[in-house]
UniProtKB/TrEMBL annotation, chains A, B:
The lineage of its organism: Bacteria, Pseudomonadati, Pseudomonadota, Alphaproteobacteria, Rhodobacterales. SUPFAM superfamilies: NAD(P)-binding Rossmann-fold domains (SSF51735). Residues 3-202 form the NAD-dependent epimerase/dehydratase domain. InterPro entries: DenD, Epimerase_deHydtase, NAD(P)-bd_dom_sf. The keyword Iron-sulfur does not apply. Keywords: Carbohydrate metabolism, NADP. It comes from Primorskyibacter flagellatus. This is Nucleoside-diphosphate-sugar epimerase.
Amino acid sequence: MNILIIGGGGLIGQKLAHKLIDKGELRGQEITGMVLADIVDPALPDAPFPISAASCDIGEPEAVAGLIDKDIDVIYLLAAVVSGQAESDFDIGMRVNLHGTLNVLERCRALETTPVVVFTSSMAVFGGDVPDPIEDWTIPNPQTSYGTQKAIGELLVNDYSRKGFIDGRAFRLPTISVRPGKPNLAASSFMSSIFREPLNGQEAICPVDRDFAHFYLSPRRCVDNLICGAEIDGDAMGTSRTMMMPGRTWTIGQMIDAMTAVAGSEPARLIRFEDQPEIQAIVKGWKFDLNPAKALSLGLSADESFEENIRYYLEDDLPRA
Amino acid sequence: MNILIIGGGGLIGQKLAHKLIDKGELRGQEITGMVLADIVDPALPDAPFPISAASCDIGEPEAVAGLIDKDIDVIYLLAAVVSGQAESDFDIGMRVNLHGTLNVLERCRALETTPVVVFTSSMAVFGGDVPDPIEDWTIPNPQTSYGTQKAIGELLVNDYSRKGFIDGRAFRLPTISVRPGKPNLAASSFMSSIFREPLNGQEAICPVDRDFAHFYLSPRRCVDNLICGAEIDGDAMGTSRTMMMPGRTWTIGQMIDAMTAVAGSEPARLIRFEDQPEIQAIVKGWKFDLNPAKALSLGLSADESFEENIRYYLEDDLPRA
């Protein structure tokens, strides 16, 4: 079992690599090799099997051909230009998110080895006027270039799977929280920083009210789902290889209460509520009422309560911070 | 008003060119030039303005750049590799239907002239398990490569429009009947030939029962809708530039009765019913219960009864046959 993680330098890619190394097997077979690829060489964990790093721009077909060969059994295609950048720089979004995905799929087709391909899509495929709740069969009507490119990736994964070129599966990821690291310019940055910074003894600003609701998943559970997602039998997915990855809807108030239940009352005192209309204008348009029925039926799961998300951050990420 | 019809050599492209020449204007402006492009030089109708033919493989970005320049106001993108061929020859379907569409859109973006682009999509975007009736907001879950490529084209037309690179609109065409010409190998061939051949005094075979229902539009009405579709105000389409083109559901029995009402009882006697299970297996999976509400609200229309379709064939096509 040889595994390639494209986007192996990112938060989820790194955690996935560590978890797979701990687990030692995937799809019932011992892991015998792993490659972590990213735009720059990713950090390499220790592993009891050959593991290597590769720098690869998936927008280049030749680079993809050099990356993927016949001995790769499972490909995680996590690499993407994120929403804000794909919107401000249309070319790079198209290059990585659309042509990069096509390059990976075309390389798989040329090899004729039908690898398992796990593609990470996004809730951003949904937009415009769609009814709540969003179901697996709700129409994607993306209102961003990122969402458009992800929706196209889903269609391609489905068709390449139907034709037997790959054994694909595409999961629309919830917003990941608690993310380790530093705040960034993303509108969603506060959805991790209002927990992460207080748990590190620092102040954080919450730009929305306590009743703001959104759809979340912890990094640890996301990795578990990506592993489970690779193990699903292709035929069990029916006529569509795309589904929401499970997550759960919580309000900011519920999440803060969960932090207090796990870590005591100190951290919550470090959160300062400060309305930021420009952030609110963006995030209040996001969908949060989603029903990930298909993935749940196939064995993927959500965090039980946000207390889990807090605990996972304390166990997995705080020691390194 | 300069118009480019890509796929100008096909049935709809030719009829559209003739109709636009008769009409003399589009979007309230006098037509001052027209180019008909196709993979081989299309036939050129007489016109009171400069009209030219171009042979162009839209799979070649350079050829597309040579075809589209800043003085083009409206582009009809009708060219496509059809369903059967896109399924049997994956490469050519991807080349023309996906990359060809991308090449046209990218050329428009580079010109920065925001032309109106009318893209013809297909009912083939629908597939798998979807509830009846199919609405404009039903999820496309294509089960063919052709349907996948058309669904991707729709997403691209929407995003390029949202970004202001084009002023696009995408219409999912019903099955066109009565088509002039000869029977072909398409599973849907009988949906025209059981009327066309008898109206020409020849026998035809109907491979399905009289109660087989499907969703149809006449070539003449399709052309009218493509003209109306180019004239819709972009903002009136809301967050999605894609919609079903109106059509109407009829059974074979209703259609034959309509032929008899228009042309007397002789033609119907030339139809021989002969079960063809391999044809039935394909066409009975096709969706026929569709609600083209959005296009109807924007001024597009369906044929009132199949008698219209028969009359249009007699008026428009029989004389040339």
